[in-house]
Amino acid sequence: MKTIAVALLLTAAATAASAQKLPFVTAPSTFTATLSNNTPLVFGMGVDDAQRALGTHFTYVSGRPGNEVFLTFRDLGGSGLFPHHDRLFLQFRKGRLAGWKGDWGENWMWR
Whole-model pTM above 0.70? Predict the structure, then answer.
């Protein structure tokens, strides 16, 4: 009796696998569409495109118009007891994103 049940289960699994209708199999595009940040930073983006991709507003740090450095804070959660805000500096040259650097240093306010 056990062998018949096992044979039926294996047959059903083989049929389902051959039909490619398993519920846990997803296409790669479906996975990336569900990410919270599905528009990554790309070299050459404009300021508005980078703000839209990160979902935050930028704060001007330094530089001439078109060649600025901006700062944004990313709220990545934390431990639940203490909020964790990471600084991200973005360098724009000729109005296009030329580079970025994350700063995970200590909080300088408490020194």
Answer: no
